[in-house]
């Protein structure tokens, strides 16, 4: 009788007390020098992302808890990673489309990144990227698109 009661009780406890499964990241970058923008912790080694959202930044071990069977893992090999830079085609098209959706008369000043002061690792924004941004802005219907100089 005692065994008959303990098995259902054990099953109930296992279901009720188990911790919910954590979402797995779509992308984890490890072995990096990630710029955090935080002066108290200017660099981290790893970053986890779900979709386009950053869900964790920290050491390789800390961020490793986000790994799942379908997570893409990139070993950055000690390279600098700067989250938030937005010069890919999809980001540029998205920005142009957003601005045009508000008003085609909003001026869009597209500027180049210049490695200066403490952030000298990422490369300069090439002139081709500024020209692509200009083309995406015009294709979205923006009337005033100003690509900055690539110095």
Furnish the topology, listing elements before pairings:
Blueprint: H1 2-17, E1 27-30, E2 33-35, E3 43-44, E4 46-50, E5 53-58, H2 60-64, E6 72-75, E7 80-81, H3 89-102, E8 108-110, H4 127-139, E9 145-147
Parallel strand pairs: 1-6, 2-7, 8-9
Antiparallel strand pairs: 1-4, 2-3, 4-5
Helix pairs in contact: 3-4
List unreliable stretches of 5+ residues.
none
Task: Tell me about the largest β-sheet.
Answer: 4 strands, mixed
Strand order, largest beta sheet: 5-4-1-6
At the fourth CATH level, what is the homologous superfamily of the largest domain? Urease, subunit C, domain 1
Please tell me how large the radius of gyration is. Answer: 23 Å
Shape: globular
Order of helices and strands: HEEEEEHEEHEHE
Strands, total number: 9
| Helix content estimate | 25-40%
| Intertermini distance | 83 Å
Number of domains: 2
The CATH level-2 architecture of the largest domain is identified as Roll
What's the overall average pLDDT, rounded? 82
The percent range for strand residues is 15-25%
Briefly note the structural class of the backbone.
alpha/beta
Q: Which CATH class of the largest domain?
A: Mainly Beta
